[in-house]
Amino acid sequence: MKKYFLLFAATASVAVFSCNSEPKNEPGEGTEATADSSKVKLADNDAFNDTLNGKLVSIFYLRNNGIEASITNYGGRVVNLFVPDKNNNMVDVVIGPGNYKDMYETKDYFGATIGRYGNRIGKGKFKLDGVEYILPQNNGANTLHGGPDGFHNVVFDPKQLSDSSLQLTYLSKDGEMGFPGNLNVKVVYTLTANKEVKIEYEATTDKTTVCNLTNHTYFNLNGGERSTTTCYR
Questions:
Q1: Any domain includes 225
Q2: Most confident of 34-38, 100-104, 134-138
């Protein structure tokens, strides 16, 4: 079977520093956190101990050079990202649901890996090599972020590469959400020694297809509010 290397192995790097001097975390969510990593309150294992479509949902922890993160294989979502502010207090700068139950029930995009195709496909259809493909519409007449069961709503296969790096893989089968080709996706999250979050994407396909992978984390650089009420898709 002929395979195509799709697009590229993309690397997105963001240096993460908080500018807030007085963290606004709610009680029990890191109010007393300092640069001492023992006081960082990452998402709890029990909040992600579940299964979906026969696959285990879990939470994974990364740390490197004073920053820490938690990532779940449900949707490849960044759940926490603790960084030091200017007073060396540790604050969580990402927002969204902090547990699997709320993520699954809302099926929103907080922190998620987006695919097969980030953004909107007009009228839920496209033509490729003379063939028209019809997709489910979940944003008015459009297909948004891969459709209702896009990558934000699947369970990836995890592999912890090191204390600072996590690999997630997923096979999106031919016809899933209407897209052509079996698409093997690999996403690697790394916390670097330079206090960066690096996300690398790689995909291969056995048929000409479309693909636009990205991450949908919302940031609050004031630190740690978990409210989702002021965020937009």
A1: no
A2: 134-138
